[in-house]
Amino acid sequence: MQPTIVQGPDKKIQERISREIQEEYARKADSLKRREDFRKEFDYFLEVLSLAANPIKFKERFNKPLAGLYCISTPLELFDAFGLHPLRLHCGLLPVHKLSFSFLPSTVCPAIKSCIGQFYADNSLESLCEVMVIANSCYEKTKSLEIVKDRIKNLHVMQMPLDKESEKGQKRWIEEVYELKKKLEKYTGKHFSRKGLLKSIDKYNRAWELFGRLTEMKRSGLISEVWSVILTNAFMLDDVDSWSDKVSGLIDDDKGKKSAQEPKVFLVGSPLFFPYLKIAELIEEVGMSVVADDLCTSERMFAGVVYKDPSEYGLLRAVAERYQLPCQCPIFPDNSYRVKNILETMQKYNIKGVVFHLLKGCHIFDMATYWFERLIKENGFHFIKIETDYSPEDRENIITRLEAFKEMIY
Amino acid sequence: MKVFRIRTITQIIFFFILLYGSYIGLRFMNFMPTWACTNPVDYSSACYLLPMQRFQYGLNPYLMYSMPFPGYFIIQGWMAFLIFFLYLIIFIIIFNKLWCGWICPFGTLQDGISFIRKKLKIRETQFSEKTKHSIRPIKYLLIILNFVMPFGFAFGAVAATPIFCRICPVKTLLPPLHGNILNLTIGFPPGVVYSIITCIFAAFILIMIFFRERFFCTICPICAMIHIFHKSSLLQFKKNVGACDSCGNCWRVCPVDIKEVYLEKKKENVIQENCNLCLKCIEACPQKGALSIKYFNKTIFSSSREYLEKIIGRKGKKKNATDNSPRPG
Asked: How far apart are CA B262 and CA B247, in angstroms?
């Protein structure tokens, strides 16, 4: 084993923070259950999310080797085809910042502070993962794994080409997916099965299809952004079939009809990780409704894989491209489709303004705001940038700003 | 009913009508811009390029003094050429490239061969952008062979048979389906050399079609001719750039590997020279209204997530998915 690079906090602190984590999950679940729009079907998703605070139970429930994934560009279908349980590692917990503050720069994004802090928690999902894969879309997160590499069993980094529209960039990404396949064969001792991948593609396509229904519900105000994010966050941890069955029930059972509360806004920017739902909750609190978003933990997460060639190469190419080509992460130098899509959706659903959520320290998203704001305003829409972190201290300040924004657009 | 099913049924119907229709008295001559062949003994439709190669009659100076009056064959030849050219324009205006994707019997044969490859799970050959660009001029060279070489024939430089027909791979590959295997032999008309060239060319095309879907369409001179006039058609293929999320599905399912539709960020009219309007790209596009086919500027079919879900999502609901899942590709 390699020498430990960073010594974590002592056992007592770890235990205290683990208690705080469990309390925060419970507190959040309670507050969500008190919401007017709470439905008993949501209990399942809250339970799945709360399992993150109890990793042993999590492992028992899914009873498969865990593969921890960072970034939505890692193809879920491939892990499922190898019999692994893929979970998108994320963390929206404030208490774990205390576990990483001593060795991470203070200006680093809170999502990274939480993710790295999780490695030093008393017990965490990270510690149970047999394989950990990161697509280097976020360079800070990739680099930060160096600090915790002695706590990772099998780390694999996928190099994401930034020129995704070029032949070179596309070939490179397919090679990366092939490389991942080889690594998974090595880790699991299993041979890749084309039929297995085909089954996985069908399973995830079903989830994609159901998420399409959920998005329609959100557009028409039948489900709020908060619950939509909770459902997609639960997808990041849950077994895809169970998640699909539960969401299917939620959609089938839906009988209430209403229209989204005016004014309607588009939520853009840094991702929301349970239990950090601050911006979505505050937008609703001031009387606006989020009917669309382009967060990578919500509407941008699902990819329906379509293939022409059913050979092994054809399937792997389809999977690779579906995770690469439509990816609208701000790291790409050309993201023109992103703004075009947002503008098209805003016009179609009569959305008045854009709320750009920025996690402090996420410089790539911050840099994207300049031209983004300009294009949104040029097209006659309103724009507000909210820069925040996981702490609740700036709540009142954000509410004041959002209320002023509401006055402006309503 | 799904578009791909309607298309498959249409293709099969036209395949049988154009090849065997004569048995029930259907004779379409050779004015349709599709591939068929005059070599079957009793054909109902023949290759469009054949009459287009015969306008050279109108250029032959020896026919100047022919009966029933001087210049009769010149007028007849040019009239024939102009009439067939008029057919082409009319058909393009009405149908654009639907000829290629929905009617052409050689296109259907290519789809059938690809179907076998897919069933055998054999990987499709990928061409680099460079290779695709180098293949591009071939179809224009074949047009030259069709329209310029006949001048040579008219002035006695080349012998009687239309020059393109001498090396046409369709002449070897399609007639056997009609029971005519003469063209698979060495020495069939117009001679040993040409028959060897044709057989080698046909074998090459057959192998290429097997490993690469609709390979012949990327070098097809009829497809190129239709493309020259495609803007005048009432049927148009459009892209709403604002609705596109650049998922690349349109490119991935395209039988002729057209990447330009996915890359297009400004233009609305996105029909490409190799496009055969099979509409697979519209079927595979998850974005509502991002791709559409319009007739008289009225949308007759457009992309939508709901449509795609019906195709790719359906199998996921069942426990054991198989390779038989219907796919846009």
From this structure: 8
Chain A residues within an 8 Å CB radius of B246: 165, 325-326, 337
The ipTM (two decimal places) reads 0.88
Query: Of the CATH numbers 3.40.50.11890, 3.40.50.1820, 3.90.850.10, 3.40.250.10, which one belongs to the domain with range A11-212?
Result: 3.40.50.11890
A33 touches chain B (CB under 8 A): no
Which chain B positions have a beta carbon within 8 Å of A203's beta carbon?
A: 316
Q: Contacts of residue A340 in chain B, CB cutoff 8 Å?
A: 241-242, 244
pTM of the complete model: 0.88
What is the three-class DSSP state of A358? Answer: strand
Q: Per the CB < 8 Å rule, is A209 touching B309?
A: yes
Domain assignments of chain A as residue spans, ordered by start: 11-212
Instruction: Identify the structural domains of chain B with CATH numbers, from first to last.
Output: 3-224 (no CATH), 234-317 (3.30.70.20)
Q: Are B207 and B201 in contact (CB under 8 A)?
A: no
Work out whether strand B298-302 and strand A129-135 pair parallel, antiparallel, or are unpaired. unpaired
pLDDT tens for chain B, residues 1 to 329: 789 999 999 999 988 888 887 788 777 766 677 777 766 556 677 777 776 666 555 555 555 555 556 566 667 667 777 777 888 888 889 988 898 899 888 899 999 999 999 999 999 999 999 999 999 999 888 887 776 665 555 544 444 556 677 778 887 888 888 777 776 776 666 677 777 888 888 899 999 999 999 999 999 888 888 888 888 899 999 999 999 989 999 999 999 999 999 999 989 999 999 999 999 999 999 999 999 999 998 999 999 988 998 887 654 444 433 333 334 43
Reported as half-sphere exposure (CB side, CA atoms, 13 A), residue B220 has a value of 32
Token output for B329? 């590709």
Say if the Cβ atoms of B327 and A328 lie within 8 Å.
no
Nearest CB to A310; choose among B121, B243, B249: B121
